[in-house]
Each structure stands twice: as C-alpha cells, then as structure tokens.
Design goal:
The complex is a heterodimer. Chain A is α/β, with parallel strands linked by helices. Chain A has a seven-stranded mixed β-sheet, sandwiched between helices. In chain A, strands 9-11-10-13-14-15 form a six-stranded mixed β-sheet, with helices on both faces. In chain A, helix 1 crosses helix 2, helix 3 packs parallel to helix 4 and helix 6 crosses helix 8. By secondary structure, chain B is α+β, with helices and mostly antiparallel strands. Chain B is built from two helices and four strands. Chain B has a domain of about 70 residues: Alpha-Beta Plaits. In chain B, strand 2 and strand 3 form a beta hairpin. In chain B, the strands form two sheets. Chain B has a two-stranded antiparallel sheet with strand order 1-4. Chain B has a two-stranded antiparallel sheet with strand order 2-3. The chains are: A alpha/beta, B alpha+beta. The interface between A and B is medium-sized, with 23 and 15 residues.
Amino acid sequence: MGHRVGMEVSIAVSHAVQMARAEAIAAYPITPQTHIVEHLASMVANGELEAEFLNVESEHSAMSACIGMSAAGARTYTATSSQGLALMYEILFIASAMRFPIVMTVANRALSGPLNIWNDHGDIMAARDIGWIQIFAENGQESYDHTIMAFKIAENHKVLLPTIINLDGFILTHVVEAQEFLEQEQVDKFLPSYHPRFTLDPKRPVTMGAFAMPEMYTEVKFAHEMALRNSYDQILKVWKEYGDLSGRYYHPVERYKTEGAKVLLLIMGSLAEVAEIAVDELREAGDEVGLLKLRLWRPFPFQDLREAVNGADLVIVCDRALSLGGAAGPVMAEVRSALYPLAEKPAVLGYTVGLGGRDIQPSTFKDVVRLARAELAQGPQQEFHIFGVRG
Amino acid sequence: MSKPMDQYAWQEIEIGGVLTEPGNAREYNTGDWRSQHPVWTKSRCIRCGVCWTVCPEAGISEEPGGYFDMNTYCKGCGICAKECVTGCIAMVPEEE
C-alpha cells in the first residue's frame, strides 16, 4: 500500500493534484508557490496530466478563470501566495458564494510592505473571511494528503465549497522530504470523478451569479454560513476515510503531549514541529507543557478546542500574523473568543512569532512559555506581544 | 419564483444562489420604481412605434388597434416622450 518517495514538497503537491486528476488549472506563478504550478504546467505539456492549463496574466484572472472552469463542471485547481492571494481578493468571495469546489494551495508568505518573500500567515489571515474551507498543513506528507482530501471534501454535495490548503512558504514548499504516496488506483477509488450540481449546459439552462436584492441577500449569506459550518461533519468523514486508507488520521485540533499540561502552546502550520521539540525538552526537564496544533481554521472547530484546553490554566497562542491595531494576532483573538463562554477557562495570551521569515527555534518557544508565565503572574500589561522585536 | 422574494427562508435557496427557472425577472415589477409615467394622447398618435422601439426596458406594449401604452415594467425614464415624433406623449408625475 503506497510507496515512499523523497521529493520537494511543492513537487509532491503537484503530484497530488495529478493523482487527483484535476481537469482544469489556471494559475500565475509567484514565489514561493512557483514550483507547484511549474510542475503542473509541465505535466500537462508532457501529456502526463489530462487537463486544461490556462496561462493567465494575473491572479485576479486566475481565480476568475477557475470560477468559469468550475462552472463548466471541471475539477479545478490553482495555487498562489501572498500578493497573488491579495490580488484574487474580490473573486475569492464570489467563488465561495457561488459554491464552486475549487481547490487552492496557498504557500503562505508575508504581505508587502515592506516587500518580503518569506513565510508567515499574513496573506491567508487577510483573506480569513472569504467563506472557504481553510486547512493548515504541518509538513510535506500532510500537504500531499490534504491536497487529495480537499477535492473530496469540496466536491461533496453536502459541502460544495472551495477549499484552501495552507502550507508554509519555503519552510515546506522548498524542502525535500520523505513522503508516502498512495497508488493511483487507491486515489481513484477514494476520489471518484466530480459530478457538479449545476453546470453551464444549454440543455439545462440556469442563471449563476444572479444578484440578490435586500429581501434576499441576508438569506443567501446565511445559507453560505450554514454550509461552511455544516461542512465540519463531512470534513471529519473524509479525514476518517483517508485515515483508514493511509493509516494517517487527522483531527481539527491535534494534541501533542497535552496529558496533565497546565500550560498549552497553540500554533498553526509547520512551526508546530519546532514547538514539539521545545515541548519534548520542557517535558524532559519535568515541566508539563503541551502543544495544540490547529489544523482546521475554517470552519473553526469550537467544540474541539474547548475540549482540548480542558484542565489547562494558560493557553499561549503563537500567531504568525498581525491584526494591526486589533486584539492580537487573528488566531489568538479567535481562540480567546471561542473560550470566553466557558465557565472555567484558561487565560489566553498572545505571542506573535516568525513574521516575514524570522527564524524560530525550539528555544523561542521555551522563552515564550517563560515570558507568558511571568506575564500571567503579574497580570497582562499589554494586549499581546511580538516575540523578539528589538527596541 | 413561486412566491415573493421576502417570503423565502434560507433553506429554500438553491445552492450558490443558482436560479433554475428561466425568465423569472418578469415577476419583479420594476414599475414600482417610477415617479412619473407616460400618457399618450391618441388623437395625435400616428402609431409609428418609435416609443416602443426606443424604450430600454420593454416597458411599452402594443395595444389592439396599433396604439401603445406603458406596462408594469415602465420605470418612468421619459425617453419615449423625448423621442415621440408627434410629441403625443406627456410625462405625468405618479401622484397625479
């Protein structure tokens, strides 16, 4: 079952898209997403992938073309990053409102300015409210697995929502990793071909993208909200089915050594593996610190999070983005908001780390734990902290 | 649509707001918008149909006998009155 390969994560993602038999791709290259779409373009050109690869002049056009191709009934994929995601912005809402199951990889990268091509989550957090399913991968294997699963989730008729797989730019996209690929027959069995609910078909004419008067807009938006919330059950079903197939099971909130932990770190993306090392070292020193890894960002797994923090006194949220002038990083604000209704709840403190590719080591997380404990003891002095900022 | 827009619950809306029924725009009575409407003086009308031709919203229908009159989609823009060859169309405020 499956076979092991050693390859760059971006190339592995392009193979995942190939094995998922994507039929239509429209993309514009941008660092650090480039290798993914380059390889897909080459696969299409070489006849290794039976798909339409549309070269477009911008990301705004890429997402617009994806909507058109998805409307025509094709299994549609794209990938972008940072400024590219920002340029897609207005079309992202339309893709989800029209319920097109487009799958997109976002190679997370800082937003300008200042210009910076390195990793943080500023790009996706600025697009937090686009109404897409949003998932974070932690390593290459997860990037491959979640790319395949994303098509199955998105195309489920109980879901029909576009889906983003976030993977950290460079830290994941440009790293060579040992991964296990499924066999093509396994993927084909797991992921049957896409049957659209509606298509642009003259034999069965429909209007897509009609406008909504004030009498209807609220109901249409609420239907979208309910679709995204209700996608949770289907996401879990697909993850379970994939787990049974591959042996790799995924959960909305992953727990790492949380047994008996009074202090929990919480982070999304690849730095979770760095945090694991810090937790290992702290545990060895007799300090019972645990780690929560938030995998499912939208729909937000409220209940899973509430259960996961049970028994903790302090949750330290390590955001990878800023919400300038706001409560803290977006994840910290969300976590605090999710826990607020609990009668007994841990303190939630925010320490933003790793902006614009700033190097984060296990010692960083140990420092964060030490600082947060001191802050909790003396009472928070400010809304949140950016770890390691000079001055 | 089988009922007025403001009676739809969110569960009744097709996925993605898709409209499966063609031509339902005719159920939306755009004549509600107007603040004035055209009135034809038949004695001066030569039944040439210029008003019908220039109406941007198909808000004018031909009547038996070849005369013209507004329908429920007339928004009261006044183009017909402006273009009428014999000047037989007057725009009359809605409240009159």
